[in-house]
Amino acid sequence: MKPEPPERRRRTPNVRLRRSSQAGICCLFSGDMLRGYFSEIRFSLVLRRLRTAALVVVVFGFFYVVFNRAFDHDRILFPDYFVPSTHIFPSLLSDSLLDSGDTNLETVLKEASMEDKTVILTTLNKAWADPENSILDLFLESFRIGYKTSRLLNHLVIIALDQKAFMSCKRVHSHCFALVTEGYDLSHEAYFMTPDYLKMMWLRIDFLRSVLELGYNFLFTDADVMWFRDPFPHFHPNTDFQIACDHYSGNSTDLKSNIPNGGFSFVRSNIRSIQFYKFWYTSRELYPNLHDQDVLNNIKFHPFLIEIKLQIKFLSTSYFGGFCEPSKDLNKVCTMHANCCVGLGNKVHDLKNLLQDWKKFMALPPRLKMSPTPSWRPPNNCTLALRRHFNMSGIGNGTRIDTLRLRNFSRSREGDDLIVHTR
Q: What CA–CA distances, in Å, run from 131 to 172, 343, 386?
């Protein structure tokens, strides 16, 4: 008698097996078949799942490779001479001087970051941290006396360029990172356009690139920029790269007439800004002996920046002023930069006057604050030092020169422009 499959038996309940030894053998035989049947099903399901999983892995891997190659920063079409920089800066100070968090850039950035992964960065060396003429003390003081700026100190990371600067930072601030690279001694005052100055400027550009690659937006500020109001409400939306100016033409998109200053910039982390900083850094080889601002002026019209669709805008000196071109309205000013100045002592002297002028302004009653009377004292030390430094008669020897405008603060010639040519 041929045994019925279990499914058929369930569908025909009226069929009954006779109780006999033969029926028992049949039932036993049916059970073995059933177990074998389900064993084959289980094995087939496992095999099918393994094949499906393998196929998913292969497909996923294929698309990962394709998209990774498509969006890899180093593989996007760069000019032929471009060689990408890919290292992330380590901290090379001895372990005895560092807490564990200070040795990792990403850890320091994460601790200081705003909710949208934005950090404020500045660099510091021993000369600018010297207690005798401390730019650092003035810088931090400006945050404390500025209008609603003290909270921004929680998001400030000070990048120390030598061991003494790092120790000075740790004494007065929470977020410090030691950026010390072999073959560089940047602890001393670096005068404009000297080899040490150029090294410092290009080290800064390459370091900022690494911050972008870690996914952080940054507001970079030189330590000789005084902060009087929160600058973030005055930045342009949907802009990759925006930078302050030595001279502002009145048009934020004017590439020709605006003269940028690398001492204050706000940059959003994305593929375009990362490409731009790599391109900017490697372009120094095309323009040897020029600093970062001059190179930026040379490359800002380059087709590569159009190709990557980089959005560039310039910041108005009405809000982001400096000694070159001051913010005239103290009710609007956000920052003031000791640009167009040479000599640490001259900077410190005129920045102290700047802070005193701000304190006097803040102490005025509201009615007087709105009057046109409050103004900055002229930075006489910086103006005279700059004239001596460039020695007007020694300029114009046929080398490449750029023109920047230095606002003459002399009361006897107020409003005139002194044209200073810099190489």
A: 12, 16, 24
Which residue in this structure is represented by tokens 């945050």? 143
The answer to whether the beta carbons of residues 327 and 320 sit under 8 Å apart is yes
Give mean pLDDT, residues 302-326: 96
Q: For residue 17, give both structure tokens.
A: 């097996």
**Is the full-model pTM beyond 0.85?**
no
Look at the alpha carbons of 198, 203, 208, 209 in this order and tell me if their dihedral is positive or negative.
Answer: positive
Residue 221 DSSP symbol: E
Residues 135-164 have a mean pLDDT of 95
Q: Percentage of the chain with pLDDT > 90?
A: 49
DSSP codes of every residue in 158-195: EEESSHHHHHHHHHH-S-EEE---TT----S---TTSH
Q: Match 């004292």 to its residue by tokens.
A: 377
Token pair 């700026």 in the structure block, residue: 149
- With b for 16 or more beta-carbon neighbours within 10 A and e for fewer, the 245-261 pattern comes to bbbbbeebeeeeebbbb
pLDDT, tens digit, 9 for 90 and up, residues 341-355: 988 999 999 999 999
Place of tokens 């356009």: 193
Largest Cα span, the chain: 129
- Other beta carbons within 10 angstroms of residue 89's beta carbon come to 18
pLDDT of residue 152: 98
Residues 217 and 117: beta-carbon distance below 8 Å: yes
- Strand pairing class (320-322; 217-221): unpaired
Calpha distance 315→318 (Å, rounded): 9
Helix (H) or strand (E) run with residue 198 in it = helix 195-213
Q: Parallel, antiparallel, or unpaired: how do β-strands 241-247 and 259-267 relate?
A: antiparallel
